[in-house]
Give the backbone structure.
Amino acid sequence: MDNLTLHRLIQWRKRLERKGWYNAARFPVPRKGWIEYHAVWQGKLMSGRCPVIGMEEGFWEPGSPCYLLHRRQHVVVAVWRPTTIQRPGQIVRPLTHILS
């Protein structure tokens, strides 16, 4: 990843933090409730919602919410926030979705 792309991703993360999102590298995910998240991993934007309870089961599963938010192996940036919407799921989008 080049420096310009990394700079744009950091600026995107900071914009989300100003809107109430938490930087996953600085703030651990809470132990209860539901969260929604965004993570940049392997050149893709991974977004989704999940319950926090039982999340640890995916620690070793690449691309799982736990892998992206707790383990953070090869994750460039990741953010999360609590949500009241209780519909689990994950979508994968190209980085051009946030870099354009």
The CA atoms of residues 45 and 74 lie 13 Å apart. The longest strand covers residues 75-83.
